[in-house]
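Entries read sequence, tokenised fold; example below:

***
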Amino acid sequence: MSKVWLITGAARGMGRAITETALKNGDSVAAITRKDNDLDLSLQYGNRFLHLTLDISNTDEKLFENAVKKAIEYFGRIDVLVNNAGHGRITNFEETSEKNIREIFELNVFGLMRMTRAVLPIMRKQRSGHIFNIASAAGYCAGPVAYHTSKYAVTGFSTCLAFEVAPFNINVTNVAPGLFRTNFYDKGAMNTEADIHIADYDTARWQDDFVKNNSNHEQPGDPVKLSELIYEVSSTENPPLHLPIGADAVASAMGLAEKITEDVSKWKDKAENTNYHK
């Protein structure tokens, strides 16, 4: 049976690829973008495509509820939610203002939560649904605090949400892409300028090299192949909770698991010996 998808950040990159893959496979899509743009696929896909505008960083929950209401009025149901909207900030923690840390969390974490909160009543009523939260390989490894911590938060949210909604036959998958060939790493898009310049960090000013090395659109990941894998997972009877995509992302997730195992194993006996003894 064909599905109805609600996809945020659908204007370009991974969101655009997921949108087009779902449509090509005969499904319907309510595509959310931050502002009006050239994302008009209705001529090609007719009434299976609906374009909605919403800034996911907006704190007004009513706007999210209205977007979901429009999708329901148009399609009658929502089977798959893809929380894809987000952006980066590649600055050292000490040099990043609290305002800008809150700003990235507002979009990458709280906006994602607001969208999920608006969709969950529909999926609970249906007793079915699948939520894909687009986190990042950054949510499984160390890196610049503001961005990586926001993606760790998405990974934690996905893990805990899956526990809460399982009784309603709603699946959650935490998608963790590595480096993919989009404009995400273009200079300027990653916000590499320090808010508070601290001279001690000048000897390790790695941000410019990082963006330069990843902004030439020659990253190893193919967004179309990512979208096809997500589509395959959406049709799987027992979908994974954790889905790192790309060889680098798989290595990051496995590296974190190995490090946790190493640390826990090393201190296991002493950690277990902290119980009260009668």
Notes: The longest strand covers residues 170-177. The chain has a mean pLDDT of 89. Residues 139 and 156 are 9 Å apart (CA to CA). The helical segments are 13-24, 42-45, 61-75, 98-126, 145-165, 207-214, 223-234, 247-272.
